[in-house]
Amino acid sequence: MNAVTIEELQRATNHYVRAAMESPLIVTDGGKPVVLLKRFQQAGKSGRPLPKREAWIASLPETADSAQTVSDDRDRG
Questions:
Q1: pTM higher than 0.70 for the full model?
Q2: Minimal CA–CA distance to 27: which of 19, 69, 54, 71?
């Protein structure tokens, strides 16, 4: 793992950020490691799956007038 000082990072930020995308980079201050720069990775899928759209729509109450449904919902407050 490569290392760079804060001062070097300030002088050539673009270079070191691009380098950290390929391999993690330790940033040091006074010879001591303070930060680890590495490529950001999106989190994988987690949580529960979304319900099936058609099943959800079928579970909704039937109504002839959506404006009336919205009005009734507002009245319930």
A1: no
A2: 19
Location of structure tokens 């002839």: 64
Residue 47 belongs to some domain of the structure: no
Residue 28, strand partner residues: 5, 33
What are the E-state strand segments in 1-77? 2-5, 25-29, 32-37
| pLDDT for 3 | 95
According to DSSP, the residues that pair with 37 across neighbouring strands are 25
CATH of the domain at 33: 3.40.1620.10
What's the CA gap between 20 and 15, in Å, rounded? 9
Look at residue 24 and tell me if it is in a domain: yes
Residues 21-76 pLDDT 10s: 999 999 999 999 999 999 988 777 777 777 788 888 888 878 778 888 888 889 98
* 69 is a domain residue: no
